[in-house]
Amino acid sequence: MIYRNYKEIENIKPGAKLWACAYKFDNNKITMGLISKPVYGMLRGYAWDYDAIAEEKSYSSFFVPFKRNSETEFAKSKAVQIDSRMYADTYEECVELFNSLVNEKVEWFLKRAEETKKDLIRETI
Q: In terms of Cα–Cα distance, which of 36, 37, 40, 42 is closest to 12?
């Protein structure tokens, strides 16, 4: 299953293993702000890095990728808030999701190019 927005992912409990990706512009809508190809990791609770709070009483707040070639060790420095990514249950679904995000940007640029062409002055003397 593919999860494209926060509402679809917010009720999944901490501990769920998912694939995540992102492809977003900066605020200026010209330069890329975030390119995150599919990465495997786990949803974690709001206090996932502290032993003091039981995670099972928490809600999913972070996505933490696994270290390369591991499904148990986290790449803690790459933890992100769950709403900064889109998710899928399988690698293949995440690739499909990532490619759809790229294609959305391609279509956006093509539309802007067509709109810009309308500004040409076509005078004949």
A: 42
- For 32, residues 6+ apart whose C-beta sits below 8 A from its C-beta are 23, 24, 25, 26
Which tokens is 34 given? 């975030």
> What is the spatial distance between Cα 93 and Cα 80, in angstroms, rounded to a whole number?
20
Closest CA to 56 of 17, 9, 16, 6: 16
pLDDT tens digit string along 18-30?
Answer: 999 999 876 666 6
Q: Which helix (H) or strand (E) holds 60?
A: strand 60-65
Predicted pLDDT of residue 11: 81
Give the 3-state secondary structure of residue 4.
Answer: coil
Alpha-helix runs per DSSP H in the chain: 6-9, 91-117
